[in-house]
Amino acid sequence: MKSILFFIMACILSVTSLFAAGEQETVQPEESGPYYFTAAGPWDLAQGRIDFAKQPEDPVFQYVIDQIGIAPQTYAYDWEGGTGYLQNVRLLLASGTIPEAILEPFTTNFVKELYDLGVLIPLDDYLENAPDVMAMYSDEDLKIIRSLTPDGKIYYLPGKNIEPRQGMIRADWLKAVGKDVPKTRDELVEVYKAFRDMDANGNGDPNDEIPVSGREGMRWLDDLYVMHGVHMYEGHPAWSWDEKTQQMISHQVSDNMKEAVTFLRYLVEEGLMDKVMPFQPAGDWFAKISADRIGHYFHLASGIERRLTMVADGSNPDAEWVYMSPPSVPGLPHQKNFYPGIGAPQIVLTTEAKDPARILEWFNWGVTEEGAKFHHYGIEGVNYEIKGGEIVSEGFPAAQRYHYSPTYASRNAEIYRGTNYGDMKAAIYNASINDGRSLENLGMPVSIWEGYEDFVDSNAGNLYRQYTARFILGELPLSEWDNYVAEWNKKGGAEITRRATEWYKSVYGK
Ligand SMILES: [Ca+2]
Ligand SMILES: [Ca+2]
């Protein structure tokens, strides 16, 4: 099975002539000597990616070796929204190079794909080497992790740090137009209109502000959906349990989704939302934010320094982001955004792992205080100083930050405070950390969608995204909504709803 699949993948590879890195010399582990394990990992060229062979010469790599004796030597690829990275990992494997570990395999679907290829080893016998990681998981979490494969073993370790995904709005724009952070949908519309009509960014042009935008596939506008009762995570509609009908409901077709889409249609009609948003590449969206043109966006507080180019380049030194809780909508209680939960796998080990226990020791270091400090601030005396008990950061280049320690290092307000724009990030973190909740379909296995892959929550090209984009842009009238739902059910929605309901009942004893 494994060899046939590799053969097919290798054929695809030779046709496309995309040959990945060949065999490389690496340091073999000894009892306690330095251990450079090979890994696949995301590391963008724009973040100063260092060549595989040169990584051990990097002083930051050597710092990690000095600290714990173990560091990853990484076959690294651009993240490209996750899917680009996974495609490159597939090509690497198809070329015959199997790294000892695969970092950030991104989705449980991909972990399952690797399991089916026979590439993974179970981690159960080595978990005692990751006590701090294991202490993060609840019994429920472990049940979900084990539910991925039929043997019930643990093949991946997910991150468990809670980094809220949240709506952020420009405090300086609000001040310029004489408004407060909106608390209701009506107030939000008023603020958007003021951003549209006035020179909120203060550059002399009243017409260059875009009140709200987002990115292709109707993604990263979560709060505008969530406020209408949609269960949504990073632009992927999720599932919720309906007590009344004793069924799972897909928010691709829920009544709440219809309300949200109706509102978004209104925003586009009024010129309050970016019309290109449904097809806008992530880079274009971020570029508009950095160019001081977008008033409200939904993302992560940790990424804020990259959305404040206008401060860094001096064009708008007053730019400031603050948290905006999902505004209330008539007839609904206050809705909360969704926490990441345990959804994202952070590491898997392969049949090539020479010393799985030590690799997990390295992984565990990421959640220790020392590991988190290194991840966020770098090396004391090089990237930061401690003055009067406070961390004074000189800036820790992303090039090193992401790649020699696990990226899921703990996050909290105090940690944020020591980074660039730390007070702004800490304030957003503190305001949002208790304003979130867990998804109800956390850990739902991929087998639910077997035969109906177009319905997978994270599938970018599905029926849901095409239809909602057309509704929002006004290419289809909302009166067609019921036909959309009927088509969705007929093409497989009814069947996956049945499976999702069965799964939920079996896990939660309904
Ligand atoms: Ca304007
Ligand atoms: Ca302006």
Structure notes:
The protein is 37% helix and 14% strand. The protein is of the alpha/beta class and 510 residues long. A five-stranded mixed beta sheet has the order 2-1-3-14-4. The protein has a four-stranded mixed beta sheet with strand order 6-11-5-12. A two-stranded antiparallel ribbon has the order 7-8. The longest helix is centred in the last third of the chain and has 28 residues, at 481-508.
Taking pLDDT < 50 over at least 5 consecutive residues as the criterion, the unreliable ranges are: 1-25
User: Which sequence of strands runs across the widest sheet?
Assistant: 2-1-3-14-4
Rough shape? globular
How many structural domains are formed by the residues? Answer: 2
Q: Helix- and strand-based class?
A: alpha/beta
For the record, give the distance between the C-alpha atoms at the N and C termini, rounded to a whole number. 38 Å
CATH homology superfamily name of the largest domain: Periplasmic binding protein-like II
- Could you tell me the number of beta strands? 17
